[in-house]
Amino acid sequence: MESNYLKESLDNFVEHPQKPLSECKAVLLPVSFEATASYMKGTKAGPKAIIDASKHLEWFDLELGKEIVKEVPIFTSETLKPKNVKGLLESVESSVKEIVSQKKFPLLFGGEHSITFPAVKACASSFDNLSVLSIDAHADLRNELNGEKYSHACVMRRCSETSKIVLAGVRSLSAEEKKFAEKSGVKIFFGNDFSVKEVVDSCSKNVYLSIDLDAFDPSIMPAVGTPEPCGLDWGTVLGLCRELFKRKTVVGADLVELSPIKGLRAPDFAAAKLAYKILGYKFLPKASERF
Asked: Is 16 annotated as a binding residue?
């Protein structure tokens, strides 16, 4: 049966010859959506920037000792371009449900962080005892922002309706969010001083990983809509991802909130490399155990 949303893209990740969906292990789903951004704009251009930058990645990964793209067949889907929140919720949930039903690993590129909720909802319907690990500078636990309950600032509040929430790297939250976290049992690891083991221990067996790129320090990742100082460094984020994939079953993931800066390609490249590493950690676990 032909998919309503999953169509083969002519602009594929790392520019490696693409195999049919049935032969692939991972599906990359770009979601160009920006409707609730509350500060700087530009996240709708994030997915294309990541894919463009990926074409300059070295296929051989020094850490894993493998050419990941040759070990992990990747299907890059055409970019979803929902016109409103309703369209976002429907298209992403349907797409991720189809990916998961075919026993593929969904990796989404945003776009604003609001794309995460429908992906989590789709995964929660297929995997029991799902937790969400959100690596983010912000808690995103508001019930609504500017009258919109599906705002990027509310995404973890919505995800908490279906799944356990663990937050790492948080450096900014409102009084409302702090109160909700304490009342509902959301586990928050603040700033950049936390134990990777404790973060992973807090997650259930099945995990959806969401990485808001503003989790990084702005010196590493300036191309985000809502930057916060004193962020995470590259090694910390990789270490957390490595440990998570080693010890838990990660059923899906996303990279969100890249807001490309004209003339500055380093953030785009870093995001593409992080996506590539995630695929390696997911499908080449024995190689990652060397570290």
From this structure: no
This prediction has a pTM of 0.95
Which of 288, 190, 189, 194 is CA-nearest to residue 243? 288
Element (H, E) at 249: strand 249-256
User: Does residue 136 have a known ligand-binding role?
Assistant: yes
Q: Is 217 annotated as a binding residue?
A: no
Q: Is 56 annotated as a binding residue?
A: no
Say whether 214 counts as a known binding-site residue: yes
Per-residue pLDDT tens for 162-212? 999 999 999 999 999 999 999 999 999 999 889 999 999 999 999 999 999
Q: Could you read off the pLDDT of 89-145 as tens digits, one per residue? A: 999 999 999 999 999 999 999 999 999 999 999 999 999 999 999 999 999 999 998
Taking residue 60's Cβ as centre, other Cβ atoms within 10 Å add up to 12
Delineate the domains of the chain, giving CATH numbers in brackets. Answer: 13-288 (3.40.800.10)
Question: What is the distance between the alpha carbons of residues 256 and 274, in angstroms, rounded to a whole number?
Answer: 12
